[in-house]
Model the fold of this input.
Amino acid sequence: MTRSKPTLHRLCELTPGQFGDFFAYLAERSKGQTRDGKPYYLCKFRDARRTTGFMVWADGGRFEECETKWQEGGFYKIRGLYQESERYGPQIEIHQIREVNDQDRSDGFEPADLIDRSKFDSDAIAQPAAHPGDQ
Done:
């Protein structure tokens, strides 16, 4: 029996309880401590339209990987479960994660799809404004 791999989705299109593969940008990775002094990381993965949180606990199995390999500003392919918490907002439960590689472009990876873009026309912004009386 062969298992098929999950369908590739956009993070912003996942619905609560949906499991799948998606590309994401690691926008933030901040280290903290619980009241008991146990270290953790709060990671925020995003695409251009949604940011999700992922807690990496010291005893949770991904702590060393997060601390040594995951880089803020990096692009990752994630297999995981999307959830929405009333208290914590959009969350992902990561089952697999790896850095994006060159072959991912053939699966639709495009870095510009994962980063906030201005809703304004960049060419129009770059043009100097015309002033009345200029000729």
Summary: The mean pLDDT is 86.
